[in-house]
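Pasting two entries for a bug report.
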Amino acid sequence: MAPPPNLARRRALTDGALRVLATTGLHGFSHRAVDTAADLPAGTAANYFGSRDALLAATAERVLELHEQDMAAAHGLVSGPVDREGLIGLLAMSLEMSANLHRERYLAVYELTLESTRRPALRKTFDAIRHAAIEFTCEQHRALGLTTSRQDVETLISLYGGALFTLITGQAGDDGKTDTATCTALARTMVAGISS
């Protein structure tokens, strides 16, 4: 049965699911926990998502939606073509924002990513999300006047993911804090890795 068409409520549920995953991991993940986190009546999540797998997949799709919104907003802050230094600046800004403002979201992403290695249906969702993220990023690079190849975009996404994991889990720097200098150094290394 198709989920009810209330998009705002679906987003509230998947945002609640992200909070549950970030705070309790998969051990505490249930329809009831998501209802509570979304401040919605008991049974709402089950009404929208008939299985745990469906709820996990919808939550993963919400992550892509939020990521694309963030990228589009960052793109809107930039005028004119961007050179190599501009790309480094954009990546650094994105790393810092993701690690500081969206830490909860990415903790949830890591939970979902690990779970996708054990759930083929979720893996298919993640594969589709990765493909969409690559296409979206390629479009953003072209719009910024960058000539980054698709292969280099894929490499950047992988490097970015590793750098963000390091920042989110507090492994960067002596005090584990995410600052502009650390993010810029990581971004510079990422861009150097795809440039000759």
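Entry 2 (this is the one that rendered wrong in the viewer):
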Amino acid sequence: MAGRRSFGNPVPVGDLSILILDPVLRKRAGISIGLVQSWEEIAGPRLASRSRPEKIQWPRRMHEDDPFEPAVLVIACEGMAALHLQHETGEIINRVNAFLGFNAIGRIKIVQKPMTTDKGRQKPTLRPLTAAEKTKLSATVGKVEDDALRASLERLGATLIGERKQ
């Protein structure tokens, strides 16, 4: 039964998000999800952790018979990664063109930006709950029959209440 999709089988959320995000990225930034996902293989692990492709700027063509001109790949990076990236520009252009399958990129534009990572994000410190807050929380979720769900709701409630200041 080739060509038929089975509607009862679950589909990973990542696959669905790619179907949604890829056309948006292509239209707004001229870049594909595949290039962003393969950035570590293209730039290498040392540069990939401190840089990311932002967009591809295609030159405007005034007429249809104008010759093809390669685009500019805009790469955001932080600090010293810009210097390393500048030294490896030729190699990265070759790797991106090999990934895309044709000579699409002619040069690279480096933009220095701070790169956010999840490692820098810290968990909020929670204050201990008072006895009154604990009893109110237990009374609120006590009517839930499923033990696992009740425990999850108690943890969620304790986190939400613990984040508030007294």
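Dev reply: Rendering is fixed now. As a check, the viewer should reflect this: Residues 126 and 160 are 9 Å apart (CA to CA).
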